[in-house]
Amino acid sequence: MNQRTIAIGSIGLLVVVIAVAAFLYVTDQQQRSQTKAAATTASSSKAAPLVTAVVGGRAPEFAAATTAGPFDLAKAKKPVFLEVFATWCPHCQRETQVINKLYALYGERIAFVAVSGSSTGMDGDSPASQQDVLTFAKKFSVQYPIAYDDQLAVMDLYNQGGYPTIVIIGKDKKISYATSGEIAYDDLAAQIQKVVK
Questions:
Q1: Which of 31, 46, 80, 114 satisfies CB 3.0 to 4.6 Å to 146 for a cystine?
Q2: Within 10 A of 182 (CB to CB), how many other CB atoms are there?
């Protein structure tokens, strides 16, 4: 074999190796891209749950067994003040005093109901339970009707992105106000005034 044949054979082998390496690289990049796209789609669908309770829209129906007896939105004859809370949430714990004051002032003209919305108990470790909600009510001197929802159905319908979620529903069953977080007494009283006139 002469040197020319060896050189041509080496170049041919080099071309084949480069072609195979390029093919493997492109295939790997396509697989990574598809995996990343699938992961992004999955995480987007989990991060953006369907919001069914929107201001101006009809309030999704729910019923709950509260400390003051059964509550059914469909049968409510007056506006409704709904809180979805978590017993472990410090914002919810502080907000009880605000809602107590509102309940004392507006309890005859608006139906108050607070419904648990977390599967975690007040200690942050144990599961939520009826007893956990009753302990929360006693510890924070809750004066308004409060309910345990083991299915988290009300949270699924009304959650506005955090605890507490507060929703005010007019007599027409349309949502007048919906938000989440700790809200000042004056701000909530102003929103209640809009539905009790």
A1: 114
A2: 16
